[in-house]
Design brief:
Blueprint (H helix, E strand, L loop, with lengths): L2 E11 L2 E10 L5 E7 L8 E7 L2 H5 L7 H15 L2 E6 L2 H4 L2 H12 L4 H7 L12 H8 L4 E4 L3 H9 L4 E5 L10 H11 L18
Parallel strand pairs: 4-5, 4-6, 6-7
Antiparallel strand pairs: 1-2, 2-3, 3-5
Length: 208
């Protein structure tokens, strides 16, 4: 996969001022961005998140998943560390696309779990790939990462794609009554590490 660097700019956020770097897959035209803060090219492992786009969770505040909560916590963690990267990857709905995700949600409303819904639509449980990540990290001068994720399959997928993942950093936020079953399915069928039973977390803020 060939990734082309396009441009960089400053991006002020509630968590601090990041630098946003734009990338394009030359074969498909698909666009991805990386948000960075601090000195990431000094050779030391960098706190990182590879976050797949979730319009419903990231922008529409959906409580059906934990995606928006994880994105916010990743940005907050990078800001608190003063150094890190969040790769924002355009592969909505674990790779099936936004409208198919709406169809999958409709099936979940009828009783299917998140894996069953994808399979009933003819997709695999997780259609994402991470082969764009290594060239993005190379461009940014990042040699190794400490990956914020609860998904051991993501650690393996990134490692298989050539990324040096030296540590998995838990990212256990966002559990609530609307996504409890979703999280349990991710744990039982996709191998994710599940937040402790009974933890209903919306944000890890100053009051927590």
């Amino acid at each position: 996969m060939t990734i082309k660097f396009i441009a960089s700019c400053k991006l002020p956020t509630p968590f601090g001022v990041f630098t946003m770097h734009g990338f394009e897959e030359t074969s498909s035209g698909k666009e991805h961005v990386a948000l960075t803060m601090g000195d990431i090219a000094d050779g030391e492992p960098v706190l990182a998140r590879a976050h797949s786009e979730c319009l419903t969770g990231d922008a529409l505040f959906s409580m059906r998943c934990d995606c928006g909560y994880q994105l916010e916590e990743a940005l907050r963690s990078v800001s608190e560390a003063g150094r890190g990267v969040v790769l924002y990857l355009r592969q909505e709905g674990r790779g099936i696309g936004l409208l198919n995700k709406v169809k999958a949600y409709n099936l979940q409303d009828q009783g299917a779990d998140t894996v069953e819904a994808n399979e009933q639509l003819g997709f695999g449980a997780d259609m994402r790939n991470y082969f764009m990540c290594q060239p993005m990290l190379d461009t940014l001068g990042i040699k190794a990462i400490r990956l914020m994720t609860n998904n051991p399959r993501k650690v393996k997928a990134l490692s298989d794609a050539g990324v040096d993942v030296v540590e998995r950093v838990p990212l256990e936020v966002g559990r609530n009554p609307h996504n409890d079953g979703y999280l349990k399915t991710k744990a039982s069928k996709l191998g994710h590490f599940l937040p402790k039973d009974g933890d209903i977390i919306t944000h890890q803020d100053d009051e927590a």
